[in-house]
Amino acid sequence: MKKFIAFALAFVITFSSIGFVDGYAAARISAEVQALVDIGMLVGDGDGVTEKYTQKEMDRFTAGISILKLRGLYEEALRYRGSDNFTDKDEVKWSEGRNILAYLKANPHLGFIGDERGRFRPYEKINEQSYFKVLLETLGYKQIVSGKGGLYLG
Hints:
The chain is mainly alpha-helical.
C-alpha cells in the first residue's frame, strides 16, 4: 500500500511539474510534497525541496531515479558497479549517478533505454508519452513491439 501511495503522489507531483496541472501553488505543495519528502521520494536539489523545485520540468535522469525509488531499487542502483554504461554517462558528475545510469542500462526492463547512439540524455526533459510508458511498465504492463501496438499486463 505504501508503494501505491508513493506512486500516486509521485504521479501527481510529476505531472503537475511538467504542465498538466497549472499553477502548482504553495498552498497545494505542503501536503503532497511533504508526504513525498517524508517517505524519501523527493529530495530536491542544492536547496532541497522548495516550491521552485516542484515547478521544474522533469528530466530523464530524475524520472529514472523516481522509478528506482518506487520499485525499491534506488540503493541497489547507487551501489551498482557495472562497467557497461551509456555513452553520455560523464554528463552526470555525481559518481553514484553514473552508477544509476549503468544500472538502468543493465536493466532495460525498467523502461529506460538509450537512443540509437547509446546515449541516455540524462538532462533532456522527459515527454509525457515516455513517462507514461515507464509508469505503465512499473505497474506490470509490457509494450507489444511487433505486430499490433498496445499494452498488455505481463
